[in-house]
Design a protein that fits this description.
The chain is an all-alpha fold and 114 residues long. The protein has helices at residues 13-44, 46-54, 63-82, 89-111. 74% of the residues lie in helices and 0% in strands. The radius of gyration is 20 Å and the shape is elongated.
Length: 114
């Protein structure tokens, strides 16, 4: 007869906080390179060059949408880092999820202009 009980495999709260902080920092560090590399890919193509030189065939995505996604990613990352550790871990993780979602959406919106 086995008397041991199995515990669910969940990281300790301290480890969860470190993991969330790591993802938030990684998102903030990669935000600007994501934008720069996405624009480099777009502008290196024929359509991007034509848009840049002649103003023809430019993306239909409004500029405010790009700025809003950038601001949301930046703000969510800062909020996730400023949030007190140990409290609201679930909310902090959702903030990082929103940060990465906005950042990936921004990159996709820029790349769709190619």
């Amino acid at each position: 007869m086995n008397t041991t009980t199995e515990r669910p495999v969940t990281p300790a709260p301290r480890q969860q906080d470190r993991l969330i902080t790591g993802w938030a920092v990684a998102g903030l560090v990669l935000l600007l390179p994501t934008v720069v590399l996405s624009w480099a890919v777009v502008l290196s193509g024929e359509r991007g060059t034509r848009c840049l030189m002649y103003g023809e065939g430019c993306s239909d995505i409004p500029g405010w949408a790009l700025y809003a996604a950038f601001a949301l990613a930046l703000l969510a990352g800062i909020v996730a880092l400023a949030w007190p550790r140990g409290r609201g871990t679930y909310s902090r993780s959702w903030t990082v999820f929103v940060q990465w979602g906005a950042q990936l959406t921004l990159g996709a919106m820029i790349l769709s202009g190619a």
